[in-house]
From TrEMBL:
Localization in the cell: Cell membrane; Membrane
Protein name: ABC transporter permease
Membrane is among the record's keywords: yes
Native source species: Enterococcus lemanii
Chain coiled-coil ranges: none
InterPro entries per UniProt: MetI-like (IPR000515), MetI-like_sf (IPR035906)
């Protein structure tokens, strides 16, 4: 009897302690919010931005499953289910657009993605700070130029009518190459433009990661006789490995997003066979031809594939022992 009574008292105390601890957690949360109220207030514009411009428009995705007619509205338009997706998959343009997009994305991951990492490592190896600051400033500037300006500069340099680079190639090889219209040169031009414009901006994250590396590790490696390459391989790269993995996950997630502005401005009638990608195709079908439901289905397909790739890459990174994105 006494044992049973003791158990009841013990269970009551456990419940009381649990409820008090839960209340204390809630109270601590309220105290934390009150103490940091200005920080939470500062986050409101960002939250409102995403709610208004990112989440609210997602309601319009429903037209991907309808035969949308603007005069009838979203609710008045006829429901067609997966018909728009079926029409897209059987369209002869599907394989061409998918192939162009994947090739550009593959080249971007293989060539463009490592470029800021290499530049960040090279800048980190500079001993004189003034040289480092000057080079950083020079490579940062192109990021702030619009793609219209970048494409205009490209057109001037590679024009067949007096372009500096075209003239140099003509003098060296004896033949004229139309870089702007030749389909074989479209992808190299896109990759080189992207590297020139974004390589400096991309180094910011990696330089920030390198700033946290303990300098004593380099000093110890020098004392052990390690050369510059060995220090980079055994100290620098492991220090930014987690950052590289996270950035790679984000890059893979946007594998079907090749960028609209740059490709649209570089596209012409002669290179369109290799220039059409998902972004320009959605614009052409949705804006210029008025196929709103069809273009929405294409965009939704691209987004779903991106989400699947992010989740898969993140899971794969965790399988190899990395922290992953989440």
């Amino acid at each position: 009897m006494n044992q049973a009574r003791g158990k009841l008292i013990m269970n009551k105390k456990i419940k009381q302690s649990t409820s008090s601890s839960s209340r204390s957690k809630w109270e601590n949360t309220k105290i934390h919010i009150i103490n940091n109220k200005w920080l939470y207030i500062m986050t409101l514009p960002g939250l409102l931005y995403f709610l208004i411009f990112k989440y609210a428009p997602m309601y319009g995705v429903i037209i991907a499953f309808k035969d949308y007619v603007p005069f009838l509205g979203i609710h008045g338009s006829k429901w067609v289910g997966l018909q728009n997706f079926h029409d897209f998959f059987i369209n002869p343009d599907f394989m061409r657009i998918m192939g162009n997009t994947l090739i550009l994305s593959f080249l971007s991951i293989v060539i463009s993605f490592p470029a800021p990492i290499i530049l960040a490592i090279l800048l980190n190896e500079l001993s004189k700070a003034i040289y480092k600051r000057v080079i950083q400033t020079m490579v940062y500037v192109p990021h702030f130029l619009s793609w219209a300006i970048v494409v205009s500069i490209t057109a001037i340099l590679f024009s067949v009518n007096g372009g500096i680079i075209t003239e140099i190639v003509r003098m060296l090889t004896g033949r004229e190459i139309n870089f702007l219209s030749d389909p074989n040169w479209f992808r190299p031009m896109i990759i080189l433009q992207g590297i020139w414009k974004e390589i400096g901006w991309g180094t910011i994250i990696f330089l920030a990661a390198l700033a946290g590396v303990d300098q004593e590790q380099y000093e110890a490696a020098i004392m052990d006789g390690a050369g510059r390459f060995r220090r980079v391989w055994h100290i620098t790269l492991p220090a930014i490995r987690s950052t590289i993995v996270i950035m790679l996950i984000l890059k893979v997630g946007s594998i079907l997003t090749s960028g609209f502005d740059q490709i649209y401005l570089m596209t012409n009638a002669l290179n369109r066979s290799v220039a059409d990608v998902f972004d320009t195709y959605v614009y052409m079908m949705g804006i210029t031809q008025g196929a709103y439901s069809y273009s929405t289905a294409v965009g939704l397909f691209k987004s779903v594939v991106g989400i699947i790739l992010v989740l898969s890459t993140n899971k794969l990174a965790k399988a190899f022992g990395e922290s992953g994105f989440y």
